[in-house]
Amino acid sequence: MEFKVESFRTESIKPSSPTPLHLRSFELSILDQMTPAFYIPLIFWYTGNAAADESSLEAEEISRRLKKSLSETLTRFYPFAGRINGCLVDCNDDGVDYIEARVNCVLRDILKPPNGEFLREFLPIQKDSNEAGTGRLLLVKVTFFECGGMAIGVSIFHKIADVYTLGKLVNTWAALTRGSSEAAVFPEFGCAASFLPPPKDFSFTTPAMKFKHEKAVMRRFVFDAPKISMLKARAASATVPQPTRVEAVVALIWKTAMTSSPLPLPLPLPSVLRQVVNLRKRLNPPLPDNAVGYLASYFTVKSPENSEAELQGLVKRLRDGIGEFSENYVKKLQGSDAISTILEAAKEVGKLSGRDDIKFYNSLSWCRFGVYEADFGCGKPIWVSLAGASSKAPDIFVLLDARDGGIEAWVSLKEEEMGSFQRNEELLAFASMDPCVHC
Question: What are the UniProt keywords, alphabetically (predicted)?
Answer without folding.
Answer: Acyltransferase, Transferase
